[in-house]
Amino acid sequence: MAKKKRKSEATHFLTPRQLEILTCVRDARRNLGYSPTLQEIADELGISKITVFEHVEALIEKGMLTRHSNRARSLELTSSARFPDDRPTLLPMLGRIAAGAPIDAVPSPDVVDLEDLVTSRYPVGVLTVTGDSMIEDQIRDGDWVIFEQRSDPRNGETVVALIDGEEATLKRFYKEKSRIRLQPANAKYKPIYVRDVEVQGVVIGVVRRY
Residue 157: inside a domain, yes or no? Predict the structure, then answer.
């Protein structure tokens, strides 16, 4: 039984070179729509074609790749193929889309990592928005706001503010001569003026689900 377990674990272990080859196949299919040839992989990695062939055979044996011997560009990833940079937060950037006049579709090979959007040197938190006082800043009821947990906002930043130690609110922060103005982004609401306020965080992003 122990020998069988070691064999199973070995089939999922990739050498650095095998991972590079597997990544070449994935990226070509993702960006170009078809698989690279063995020679193209060799040229990309600066190694010989025979070395690529040997690694491809090993990847096929490990269940990561399939290939049709009678067809060119037939390398395909299997469902067992895994990559360190493939995470649920890593999404393909497919191009641009117009919200005004139509534009030409321009394919893009880039990706967007959602983790990068919330990277901060401060602890980060998320709150659910209730109400419409920030609607003109495109922050709506039910949205999630992502905020850095810091208490040193600059004028104009949207903050999570605690008033009188009890009432929490989401507003734009403005420090005036003798007071602090918490400004809503909705003409229906008046600013809140306070002498002091506890800022619990500064908003760095908004997430909306449909």
Answer: yes
**CA–CA dist 210, 207 (Å, integer):** 10
DSSP structure class, residue 48: -
Confidence bin at 46 (pLDDT 50/70/90): very high
Instruction: Calculate mean pLDDT across residues 45-72.
Output: 89
Does residue 195 sit in the same domain as residue 123?
Answer: yes
pLDDT digits (tens, 9 = 90+) for 87-116: 666 666 666 666 666 655 555 556 666 777
Amino acid at 133: S
Q: What range defines the domain where residue 40 resides?
A: 2-77
Sheet holding 158-163, edge to edge: 124-128, 144-148, 198-207, 158-163, 167-175, 180-183, 192-194
What pLDDT, on a 0 to 100 scale, did the predictor assign at position 106? Answer: 54
Contact 161, 182 (CB under 8 A): yes
Question: What pairing do the DSSP bridges indicate for beta strands 124-128 and 111-113?
Answer: unpaired
Cα 34 to the center of its chain, rounded Å: 25
Of 89, 112, 108, the closest CA to residue 97 belongs to: 108
| Residues with catalytic roles | 133, 171
Residue 132 shares a structural domain with residue 201: yes
Which DSSP state fits 153? Answer: P
Taking the C-alpha atoms of residue 23 and residue 55, their distance in angstroms, rounded to an integer, is 13
Return all residues near 62 (Cβ < 8 A) that are at least 6 apart: 11, 12, 13, 14, 18, 80
